[in-house]
């Protein structure tokens, strides 16, 4: 009887330790670096510029809660080189603390959209429909030379669960696998590539590392289809929901 009891005690101890090890892999908090775009191709008032500029003051009166916070809000130029330079500049100064899930949240406008689109992937292909803000208009070029042309990178964030939760809260949102081939896709591919190169493990992976990062691009509709108040509320809800999914499960 003593041996059975001792064995049970050991088994329970192992279970508790394993559960602790698994649970401690979850981040303490999800920290967002948020980007939007400026004017381009006749669109002088880009909705994402309006949203990103309004977020800091909006969040002061509408805090995100314990599982999410914002590190940086930045507007990027709608050009291949400008977006790359902007991403590199931000990366040098954000995400200074350990124990955090780091999420790059990139916002871009889809002028024809009626819904919010959570972009699952980006493609190593620059095929601009118009010239960017620096006059560059690639037709069939690689974004990253050491990747196969047309190669796909995708986010590891739980988009299906995120989308489902946001729909339950009344938002018109979908998961997309086609971010276009303009500067939105350009930026997203570079962002995903950089996150992957850091080789930081996801929670649950047998590793002592806690900090890790990923990227998400979200296409928003024009304000004519969904006004600014609804859109900024959506961005806040997205961050809170993703924070809960990653920190709590």
Summarize the structure.
The protein is an alpha/beta fold and 249 residues long. It is built from 6 helices and 8 strands, in the order H-E-H-E-H-E-E-E-E-H-E-H-E-H.
Describe this structure in words.
- With about 250 residues, the protein is α/β, with parallel strands linked by helices.
- The chain is about 40% helix and about 20% strand.
- The chain has a six-stranded mixed sheet, with helices on both faces.
- Helix 2 packs across helix 6, helix 3 runs parallel beside helix 5 (about 185-195) and helix 4 (about 160-170) packs across helix 6 (about 230-245).
- Mean pLDDT is about 85; it is low at about 15-25 and about 200-210.
* Overall geometric form: globular
pLDDT < 50 runs, ≥5 residues: 16-24, 202-211
Largest sheet: 6 strands, mixed
Strand order of the main beta sheet, please?
Answer: 2-1-3-8-4-7
Structural category: alpha/beta
- Summarize the amount of helix as a percent range: 25-40%
Question: How many beta-strand elements?
Answer: 8
Average pLDDT figure: 86
């Amino acid at each position: 009887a003593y041996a059975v009891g001792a064995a049970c005690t050991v088994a329970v101890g192992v279970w508790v330790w394993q559960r602790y090890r698994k649970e401690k892999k979850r981040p303490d908090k999800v920290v967002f670096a948020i980007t939007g775009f400026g004017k381009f191709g006749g669109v002088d008032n880009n909705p994402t510029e309006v949203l990103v500029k309004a977020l800091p003051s909006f969040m002061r009166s509408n805090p995100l809660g314990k599982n999410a916070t914002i590190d940086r809000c930045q507007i990027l130029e709608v050009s291949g080189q400008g977006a790359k330079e902007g991403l590199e500049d931000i990366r040098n100064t954000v995400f200074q603390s350990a124990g955090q899930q780091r999420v790059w949240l990139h916002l871009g406008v889809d002028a024809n959209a009626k819904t919010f689109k959570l972009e699952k992937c980006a493609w190593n292909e620059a095929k601009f429909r118009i010239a960017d803000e620096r006059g560059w208009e690639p037709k069939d070029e690689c974004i990253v030379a050491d990747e196969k042309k047309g190669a796909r990178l995708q986010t590891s964030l739980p988009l299906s669960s995120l989308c489902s939760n946001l729909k339950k809260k009344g938002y018109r949102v979908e998961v997309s696998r086609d971010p276009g081939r303009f500067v939105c896709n350009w930026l997203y591919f570079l962002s995903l590539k950089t996150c992957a190169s850091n080789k930081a493990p996801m929670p649950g992976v047998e590793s002592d590392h806690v900090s890790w990062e990923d990227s998400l691009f979200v296409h928003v509709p024009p304000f004519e289809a969904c006004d600014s108040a609804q859109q900024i509320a959506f961005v806040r809800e997205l961050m809170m929901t993703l924070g809960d999914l990653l920190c709590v499960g």
